[in-house]
Write the structure tokens for this entry.
Amino acid sequence: MKYEHEKPEREAGLKAISAPYPAYDPRLEEMAEAYLVSRNISLTVAQMNRCYPSSSVDGVPRLVLPATNSAGSGYWQARAMVEAPTRYQSPRVYRGDSLIVMWPAWLIVDAPVVVVEGPFDALAAASTGLVGVALMGAKPPSAVLDYLGRFLQRSRRIIVADLDEQAAAVEVATQLSARGNTCAVVFPAPYKDLCAAPVEFRAKLLGRML
């Protein structure tokens, strides 16, 4: 998937390093719950990771997914819950080393971290009981890989590739290995990505890597 914030020209002229979060819209709660259920995402996991609905980004009903970074600055992505010209919106500030980290409702001891491209893939991983980390793009900048390399440093990494970005996923694994992280790359074929796969398939794919 191509993300708006990955366009080279987007960073030109940006000065702000932090952005406020979009306003919560309680009128969209039922839509958000139905949307998450339709994508086989645990409502508990989404709520505990502070995902919430908003219409204040561009007038489109969206689910806001908070990011984390080493600076503690505000960054997020907002996924449209209806058909829209832009599926994901991001704030017009420097991304820095921001990642979207989704924690499971329960933790499996010594379980690997699941590295994926998109935020909903991270939610899918967390819904299976593993920590999901979204790179927000197939080709993240070095700062993101540096931060990811330090995140839960002793843990193994499973990189679940989007089927249309397999080479990019292998490159991410190579870069993380160079940073001292043990990595494995798996492919969710025949599904496009982890979130597109049924719940049972996700559990089997990730379970065999434990």
